[in-house]
TrEMBL record:
One of its GO terms (biological process) is proteolysis. This is Ubiquitin carboxyl-terminal hydrolase MINDY. Its EC number is 3.4.19.12. Keywords: Hydrolase, Protease, Thiol protease, Ubl conjugation pathway. It catalyses: Thiol-dependent hydrolysis of ester, thioester, amide, peptide and isopeptide bonds formed by the C-terminal Gly of ubiquitin (a 76-residue protein attached to proteins as an intracellular targeting signal). It is an enzyme of class 3 (hydrolase). Belongs to the MINDY deubiquitinase family. FAM188 subfamily. InterPro entries: MINDY-3/4_CD (IPR025257), MINY3/4 (IPR039785).
Length: 241
């Protein structure tokens, strides 16, 4: 098994093992504009059936009690200070105290380290120590790591990027679904080539760096949908036959 495939499998395994146990007004305005750009480029709102399936696949049941640490109050993917010792490392925030969030952060950190040390894709100006990356290197490494996880989950042929709409709720509460602050607001952007996926990840990287924020659940949902929800349901059912 190649290192890349193993790392991606490790990410998914870590998730399942762990689970079973001021922004300025101008900046906010730019974020909403970015979301409008994504919507204009072909994303579609989540449906109740997909929302329910996602929650059941990831958390085992829906409706269910909501832990905000898994949704809007999760840890952001924020680096330590650039060009300093431990500049390659993600900060561990107050929200990363749960075993599952700690495990996921470690898995993502592994991808980032691989990219900084071995991947030629991030553009590097003269940099004597990849473990003391510049700010631009940090951003590019994070963007590449997120893209890789989603793209490989789709067999390197397909990827779905889940992005919450800043104002619209697409799925109302019902007997089948209770709101969690993220799932019901998702726009789903399907990408059929890696460059397109990375472009939209880069344009919306701020969503993965909000701390606290929905970074981890967005990445998990994106990976699950990229593997096609039907495959996930079939796999889950076969294990219980």
């Amino acid at each position: 098994m190649s290192t890349d495939v193993k790392l991606n499998c490790d990410f998914i395994l870590v998730f399942h093992k762990g689970l079973m146990l001021g922004i300025r007004e101008r900046a906010a305005s730019r974020q909403i504009q970015h979301m409008a750009l994504v919507t204009a480029n072909g994303s579609k709102p989540i449906t109740e059936s997909i929302a329910v399936a996602l929650r059941r696949i990831v958390f085992g049941e829906c409706p269910a009690p909501i832990k905000t640490e898994y949704f809007m109050r999760g840890p952001g993917l924020v680096f330590r200070e650039a060009e300093r010792d431990l500049g390659y490392a993600l900060r561990v925030s107050h929200a990363a105290g749960l075993p599952i969030t700690n495990s996921l952060m470690m898995a993502i950190q592994t991808h980032i380290l691989r990219i900084l040390l071995f991947d030629v894709r991030p553009v590097r100006v003269y940099q004597p120590d990849p473990l003391k990356p510049s700010f631009s290197m940090q951003q590019e490494a994070l963007c590449t790591a997120i893209t890789d996880i989603i793209w490989k989950a789709g067999g390197s042929q397909y990827g779905v990027l889940c992005l919450p709409h800043p104002t619209h709720t697409h799925v109302e509460e019902s007997d089948l679904f209770n709101a969690d602050g993220v799932t019901e607001k998702l726009n789903l952007l399907e990408c059929h080539n890696r460059e397109e996926l990375q472009y939209f990840v880069r344009r919306n990287l701020f969503l993965f760096q909000q701390d606290p924020g929905p970074a981890l659940i967005l990445l998990i949902y994106s990976a699950v949908l990229s593997r096609r929800i039907e495959m996930q349901v079939s796999s889950h059912s076969s294990k219980h036959d």
